[in-house]
Amino acid sequence: MNGEMLSYLIIVPLFGAFSMPIVSLAGRRARGAWALLISGTTLAVGSALFYSVWKSGGVFLYTLGAKSPLGQGVNFPIRIVWEVDLFGAIMVLMVTLVSFLAVLYSLSYMKHDTGLDKYYTLIIILELGMLGIAITGDLFNFYVFLEIMSIASYALVAFRNDTWEGIEAGIKYMFVGSIASSLILLGIALLYGEYGTLTMGYLAVKLTQNPTVVGKVALALFIAGLLFKSGASPVHMWLTDAHPAAPSSISAMLSGLVIKIGGIYALTRILFSIYENSVNMKAVGWIIIIFACITLIVGNTMAVIQTDMKRLLAYSSVGQIGYILLGLGIGLAAYGSQTGEIALAGAIYHTFNHALMKALLFLIAGAVIHQLGTRNLNELSGLAKTMPKTTFTFLIGAAAIIGMPPLNGFASKWLIYESSAVFNPLLGAIAIIGTAFCTAAYIRVLYTFFGRPSERAMEAKDPEGTMLWPIIILTVAIIVMGLFPWQISDKVMIPAAKALENQMAYVSALLGGA
Amino acid sequence: MFGYWDALYFVLVFIVGLILAYLLELWARRSGMGTREIGDGTKIFLSGEDPEKVIPGFEHFEGHYTGRNIMWGLTYALKRFFTVLRREHTGLLTDYVSYLVITTAFVLGVLLIWG
């Protein structure tokens, strides 16, 4: 049953997405209920998978079309496999949870929009693409899911085609995103040409036996393409166009999930599960660290001078990706040491935390836009008086993203600060400077919210029903996770980092035909 | 060594922060805009903003500008840095592609030499 569970993660959303146009014929309510049911079921499967993987501490494997990934009469894998370790399972939980909340939020948020059959189809396809990336153990299969996710994202960014902003951002995102995807595809083609396999675990074996220059060129293409997808600076500019232009429920998924799964997770998986023993980890680690430092400074500083609330949040996402990349980079450069392990655990932890925090902040931004019809910070003053619940949850989200104890962002950032300070004090200092800018950016928003109410703000009111519940659930999650930081770190994040570093287990699950 | 944190430290730092904020408030009150105990004299100077003030002809902005200048000191001090950053964020697709190409070339170069 363990492996079979993986197939439901794909079957359920796939069925849900393609049956949506038919269900839509039954009316608006049926469409919303169907989307909610599908994403809820996927969440249930995702949660069960996470729990099973966490409890077993092993790697789950599912082979498409056969019992064993190995070919008949040969001892190497020839079939497409889905392979999930604890790191992958955490990502699955993150994707299914935030997607479910985004769908729930959309029921009220999108009620004045048309073309919702396409919207819900795309949102579920987006979730499907991300889940595929999180569970796949095959490099070409990974590319297919990456494209499914990316194309759904391009379409959703330009979903509201009555404004120039969405269309322009969507076209830019699609054009430059396709170039990045092409780099990744080229890398896959190079590896296939050189080693004759696309199975990640088996590629790891082949690369370890015979590391070549072609393998390194392919890695460079992967790193560049995936840094782009994760929104790292200096290739982050598409992100700050695309994420604010999308409907807020989609912004929450883009900033909360897409850049993590399509960028950070994919990069981490490729580096650890394929290249761990065949490249100079220190050199690769320092490449990531350099981009991380640029990203966290540029993202957080640019957030300070934004007047558009959603653009500020988008720049903040860039800044937070910098922290995650810093953890990942140190995890690579200090590979094999406790510092490296803690940094990697911090990166995984912050990936999860940031998904919750940024989803919350974008959903709040959506509620504010819904009420006031503007994203301009200069026109949002005094919201605290008329939208107290929204402002309070924003306060929690902002405090968490800054890294204020006792909220969840603190624990993950602390692990990254501590390991970076031990690894190289200069990196620790850069991380703290980034946080100072991040604090400045959010204080501006909070000061505006708590300022003297403008006429416009006096007419606003808190969201209700399905728009409020996702916000409350995310706020509670942030607070509760903040109360048990080290338990989560010790029991989930550090074992996930260990599982990621253990390439042998990943390979033997595949070759053993589990 | 790793992951050590005590909630009591946070409470302590929070209390110290509150005391500092109170002292700052007292200081600002003393050296604010005036010497009076009531009226405009009690207002604290905050980055040149006066939320009560309505500029004739700009009444529609009333209450809209609170918070805008709160980080004025920071942005002014780093004016040059921000100018450079703003200049690079052109919004042009060709620039986005250029940065992607430069990034790819950099990563490829480093990996071929040290990888």
Structure description:
The complex is a heterodimer of chains A (514) and B (115). Chain A is an all-alpha fold and 514 residues long. Helices cover 78% and strands 2% of the residues of chain A. Chain A has 21 helices and 2 strands. In chain A, strands 1-2 form a two-stranded antiparallel sheet. With 115 residues, chain B is mainly alpha-helical. Chain B has a domain at 78-115. The longest helix of chain B has 24 residues, at 7-30. Chain B is flat and about 70 Å long. The model of chain B has no long low-confidence stretch (mean pLDDT 78). Classes of the chains: A mainly alpha (514), B mainly alpha (115). The interface between A and B is large, with 69 and 43 residues.
Entry keywords:
heterodimer, A: 514 residues, mainly alpha, 2 strands, B: 115 residues, 4 helices
Oligomer: heterodimer
Strand order of the largest sheet of chain A: 1-2
Number of helices of chain B: 4
Helix content of chain B: 40-55%
Mean pLDDT of chain A: 92
The parts of chain B where pLDDT drops under 50 for at least 5 residues are none
How much of the sequence lies in strands of chain B comes to under 5%
* String of helices and strands of chain A: HHEEHHHHHHHHHHHHHHHHHHH
Major sheet description of chain A: 2 strands, antiparallel
Low-confidence stretches of chain A: none
- DSSP E strands of chain B, number: 0
